[in-house]
Amino acid sequence: MNLPRRIAAEALGTLLLLAIVVGSGIMGTRLASGNDAIALLGNTLSTGAGLVVLIHIFGPISGAQFNPAVTLIVWLRREMTAAQALAYTGAQLAGAVLGVLLAHAMFGESMLQVSGHARDGWGQGLAELVATFGLIGTILGVSHARREFTPVAVGLYITSAYWFTASTSFANPAVTLARGLTDTFAGIAPASIPLFIAGQLAGALIALAVFGWLLAEDPA
Predict the structure, then answer these.
(1) Per residue of the chain (220 residues), what is the pLDDT tens digit?
(2) 20, 50 contact by CB (below 8 A)
(3) pTM as predicted
(4) Which of 122, 129, 123, 114 lies closest to 190 in space, CA to CA?
(5) Distance CA 12, CA 32 (A)
(6) DSSP letters along the chain, please?
């Protein structure tokens, strides 16, 4: 597949992912009558299910990375060039921002927002490290053993991680930056973003080292 189509697939897939994350958060909040647990449950199920479908749609075109942390690992594994990785990352960031704007437009929200939802404390950063470690481990481990099951495995992992991590598992720098632009249920205050991204990148790199060792072929 040529690079322009792959970049377009990454942008469109990430756009739809953010529309799902933010839109389902808004819908959940409106229907839950102040019950955050129900709102989070709706947000979780929509995101996990949407991910499975989006990876099936865009996987054959671009690999359906939708995530600069995943792209970083693919580049470090020498499965794409630096120029391709930068192009993917730019497309993911642009798509993420447009997805937030699309969600706002669908629900009649103010288009331009800045989140006031602080997600502070080292526990949040650790949660993002764990969430991203598990995501990369899921991708590497499942694609090594049963590649065709990877979309479902990623969706299931994120569904689980929404609930077992203190941060509700952003696990994606593009998602994190874009969610700083929505003052809705899914938002994150800009001041909280650096810690989240630091945790995500650390988790991705640790996962690469750990699963690179676990999955290495034994010498003949």
Answers:
(1) 799 999 999 999 999 999 999 999 999 999 999 999 999 999 999 999 999 999 999 999 999 999 999 999 999 999 999 999 999 999 999 999 999 999 999 999 999 999 999 999 999 999 999 999 999 999 999 999 999 999 999 999 999 999 999 999 999 999 999 999 999 999 999 999 999 999 999 999 999 999 999 999 877 6
(2) yes
(3) 0.96
(4) 114
(5) 29
(6) --HHHHHHHHHHHHHHHHHHHHHHHHHHHHHHTT-HHHHHHHHHHHHHHHHHHHHHHHHHHH-----HHHHHHHHHTTSS-HHHHHHHHHHHHHHHHHHHHHHHHHTT--SS--------SHHHHHHHHHHHHHHHHHHHHHHHHHGGGHHHHHHHHHHHHHHHSTT-----HHHHHHHTT--STT---GGGHHHHHHHHHHHHHHHHHHHHHHTPPPP-
* Cα–Cα distance measured from residue 144 to residue 141, given in angstroms and rounded to the nearest whole number: 5
Q: Which domains does the chain have, with CATH numbers?
A: 3-214 (1.20.1080.10)
